[in-house]
Amino acid sequence: MKKGRGRTYRKRHRKQSTAFSSSGVNLSCKKEYILLKKWLKERGYKNSNLNPAVFSETGRGLMTTKMLQAEELIISLPEKCLLTSNTVLNSYLREYILKWRPPISPLIALCSFLIAEKWFHRKSVWKPYLDLLPETYTCPVYLEQETLNLFPEPLRRKALEQRSLIQDLFASSKQFFSSLQTLFPEDVEIIFNFSAFQWAWCTINTRTVFMKHSQKDCFSREPDIYALAPFLDLLNHNPKAQVKASFNENTKCYEIKTHLGYQKYKEVCISYGPHDNQRLLLEYGFVASDNPHSCVHVSTVI
Description:
Blueprint lengths: L6 H17 L1 E2 L4 H12 L7 E6 L3 E6 L7 E7 L6 H5 L4 H6 L6 H15 L6 H4 L14 H4 L4 H26 L9 H4 L2 H14 E3 L15 E3 L7 E2 L5 E6 L4 E6 L8 E4 L6 H8 L18
Parallel strand pairs: 7-10
Antiparallel strand pairs: 1-2, 2-3, 3-10, 4-9, 5-6, 8-9
Helix pairs in contact: 5-10
């Protein structure tokens, strides 16, 4: 028989439960997050004081399990956990990228890898991360035309420009996708369709952190600045958050340091930059309440 829990334990448990319920719903015991943390630990990630949780205003995010001091390091993610162009070049896509002319961009390389890994899924090394990625996004490129027509003219124009950009990227990449046929038993046109490309592009656009990589001859001249960061990308945006985020060449980790303190069981946020709500909606699919960077976009009348 198990020994009974003492009064002190029950009191502490009730206190924690109250704190969780007032701050957010703790998700750390869900199978998907347990598997992700195990996967990260195998790659050198040391458990931080952050747990995944669902918050009423921001949705899924990260909650601190202890009081955080200003200037404290809140997360340090080893390079082995990051999905970058180097990850792609060390994969089965390497030979296809090296021989393709004209060279594809780092962005298309990452899109190709995400689509392929999602198709392989159960066999994918990245499965614990893929399982937690959204199936769809709320960016304007996912919205129906009838919904876009309700937007103010400047925002609608930007949204249509973005949709056109993605369509052009997909069209110009179809031949490269076709060159990957030998990797799959199924027709690549079914695997690398526009819906899959749209999902991969939005995954990268909404979830990557800035990480500058050295220019490689096998890629086009477009900047190689993307890094998908499992677990770290659960941190939500708050325009008032103050952090320093960068890749530390000494520790070989992507690190985030908060300039603000946080109370125990509160959501920890980062800032994606001084963006107004139009930019946030276009790039990330949400708007921020009480955004100090809010502004009104108007059309030029001639």
